[in-house]
Amino acid sequence: MEIRFSTRPLPQIPCDLLVVAAGPDFETELADLDAQLAGHLLEWVKRHGFDGKAGGKSTLPTLGHLEARQLLVVGVGDGGWERLRNAAGVAGRVARRHGARSVGLALGALSGDQHRVAAEMVAAGNYVFDRFKKEADRKPAAESVVFAATPPIPSLVADVGIRVKWQDFARDLVNAPADEIYPETLAARARGLDSLPNVAVEVWDLERCRAEECVGIEAVGRASDRPGCLIHLTYRPDGAAGHVALVGKGVTFDSGGLSLKPGSSMQTMRCDMGGAATVMAAFAAAAELHLPIDIDCFVGAVENLVSGNAYKLGDVLRYPNGVTVEIHNTDAEGRLVLADCLIQASKVPGVTHIVDAATLTGACVVALGADFTGLFTESDDLATALVAAADAAGEGLWRMPLHAPYKKLLHADWATIKNVGGREGGAITAALFLQHFVDGKEWAHLDIAGPAFVEKESRHYAPGATGEMVRTLVGWIEGMGGGSA
Ligand code: BES
Ligand code: MN
Ligand code: ZN
Question: Fewest CB atoms within 10 A around its CB: which of 41, 50, 351, 455?
Answer without folding.
Answer: 455
